[in-house]
């Protein structure tokens, strides 16, 4: 009998993370649904998964704190017996010209967007089952170089660099490491703080003529987590409707 694979999805209580958790569960993967503060939303994701016959567990952990990622791996090992897939999805974005970013804002974005994935990759390097998958999240803004995105883009560029290096370090164990770099996706992370006119202007820049949806990204993650992607390794895949 084939063993059920297990995935950790950070920031899985809403938006892209929730869509990923539900899609992986549809593919027969047991999912750790991580959340920092949205317990009710995470519990709802678990309920949706279980109602469809899947397995999931909501686990609170702030991945911006040093012990957050280790706690997720501990929970996955205790409840599901091990970890096969890590999806480093959780992130925060606070836009500001570089001159206007104070130290506290800088340190928090660094802790969540770069520190969290780093600690996740570090845990996975020793605790992920052989033949596993690490799927990090970058962003297409890394290639845009737009004003006000300086700190956010810098953290995501760091994730891309570690992705390519870790892929080489873990290749002997058949663990693939890739990054997904979404463009504008219709989630709270993207729309918060933007006017309707700003969102419309951004949408017009997308050749396909629409914002991405969480399921667009979840499908790509499902591919990278599945058996057909075993030869895809050390790559950053941009999913942005052709914007860049």
Question: What report would you give on this structure?
Answer:
It is a single chain. With 244 residues, the protein is an alpha/beta fold. It has a single domain (6-238), classed as NAD(P)-binding Rossmann-like Domain (Rossmann fold). Helix 1 packs across helix 8 (214-225), helix 3 (68-80) packs parallel to helix 4 (103-127) and helix 4 (103-127) packs parallel to helix 5. The chain is built from eight helices and seven strands; from the N terminus they run βαβαβαβαβαβαααβ. The protein starts with 5 loop residues before the first strand and ends in a 5-residue tail after the last strand. The model has no long low-confidence stretch (mean pLDDT 96). Strands 3-2-1-4-5-6-7 form a seven-stranded parallel β-sheet, sandwiched between helices.
Task: Note the topology.
Elements lengths: L5 E4 L5 H12 L3 E6 L3 H13 L4 E5 L7 H13 L2 E6 L14 H25 E10 L12 H21 L5 E7 L5 H4 L4 H9 L9 H12 L10 E4 L5
Parallel strand pairs: 1-2, 1-4, 2-3, 4-5, 5-6, 6-7
């Amino acid at each position: 009998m084939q063993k059920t694979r297990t995935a950790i999805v950070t920031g899985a209580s809403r938006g892209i993370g929730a869509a990923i958790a539900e899609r992986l569960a549809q593919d027969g993967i047991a999912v750790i649904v991580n959340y920092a503060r949205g317990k009710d939303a995470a519990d709802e994701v678990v309920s949706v998964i279980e109602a469809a016959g899947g397995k999931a567990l909501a686990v609170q952990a702030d991945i911006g704190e040093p012990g957050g990622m280790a706690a997720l791996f501990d929970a996955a090992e205790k409840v599901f017996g091990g970890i096969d897939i890590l999806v480093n999805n959780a992130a925060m974005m606070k836009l500001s010209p570089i001159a206007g970013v104070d130290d506290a804002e800088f340190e928090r974005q660094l802790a969540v967007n770069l520190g969290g994935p780093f600690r996740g990759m570090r845990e996975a390097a020793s605790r992920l089952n052989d033949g596993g998958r690490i799927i990090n999240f970058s962003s297409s803004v890394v290639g845009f170089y737009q004003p006000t995105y300086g700190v956010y883009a810098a953290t995501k560029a760091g994730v891309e660099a570690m992705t390519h290096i870790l892929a080489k370090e873990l290749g002997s164990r058949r663990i693939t490491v890739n990054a997904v770099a979404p463009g504008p996706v219709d989630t709270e992370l993207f729309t918060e703080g933007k006017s309707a006119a700003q969102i419309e202007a951004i949408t017009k820049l997308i050749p396909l003529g629409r914002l991405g949806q969480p399921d667009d990204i979840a499908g790509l993650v499902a591919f990278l987590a599945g058996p057909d992607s075993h030869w895809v390794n050390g790559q950053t895949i941009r999913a942005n409707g052709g914007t860049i």
